[in-house]
């Protein structure tokens, strides 16, 4: 075992350290109380460019799609002007938009798109398992 010098445990320094921790805790608590309407998540928005990895037609099939949904196709390059925690991001086509499509609108956020894909895959798995059970029963 190694001996620790006694000056490392100076009670004055330790008291200042404890006071500083107490002050920081108080600041954190008062700032969280005063901003209770804000989320603990980062609400910082960022601008980014994306290349679409799937087609999105913005149709009524997506029941929660806003009426200004921006259709895009696989490979389209879009400029997202404000990507945050929301489910819909404002975007515009950088390449010419498809015929009869607006140049600017709302696109599903990455989180929303991934959630929809997981839901779709779950439905496919359920329907396949139901199909197998039906085919097993018909062979009886």
Automatic annotation (TrEMBL):
GO molecular function: ionotropic glutamate receptor binding; protein kinase binding
Keywords: SH3 domain
BP-aspect Gene Ontology terms: cell-cell adhesion; chemical synaptic transmission; establishment or maintenance of epithelial cell apical/basal polarity; receptor clustering; receptor localization to synapse; regulation of postsynaptic membrane neurotransmitter receptor levels
Coiled-coil zones: none
Organism superkingdom: Eukaryota
GO cellular component, one term: postsynaptic density membrane
Compositional bias (Basic residues): 109-119
Alphabetical list of SUPFAM superfamilies matching this protein: SH3-domain
Domain SH3 intervals: 45-117
InterPro entries cross-referenced by the UniProt entry: SH3-like_dom_sf, SH3_domain, Synaptic_Scaffolding_LAP-MAGUK
Record flagged with keyword Nucleotide-binding: no
This protein's name: SH3 domain-containing protein
The organism of origin for this protein: Xiphophorus couchianus
């Amino acid at each position: 075992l190694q001996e620790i010098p006694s000056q490392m445990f100076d009670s004055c320094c330790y008291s200042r350290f404890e006071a500083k921790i107490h002050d920081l805790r108080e600041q954190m608590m008062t700032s969280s109380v005063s901003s209770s309407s804000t989320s603990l998540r980062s609400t910082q928005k960022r601008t980014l460019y994306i290349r679409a990895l799937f087609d999105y037609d913005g149709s009524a099939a997506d029941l929660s799609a806003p009426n200004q949904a921006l259709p895009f196709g696989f490979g389209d390059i879009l400029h997202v002007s404000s990507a945050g925690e929301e489910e819909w991001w404002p975007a515009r086509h950088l390449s010419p938009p498809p015929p009869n499509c607006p140049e600017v609108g709302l696109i599903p956020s990455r989180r929303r798109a991934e959630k929809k894909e997981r839901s779709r895959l779950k439905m496919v798995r359920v329907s396949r398992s139901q199909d197998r059970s039906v085919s097993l029963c018909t062979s009886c």
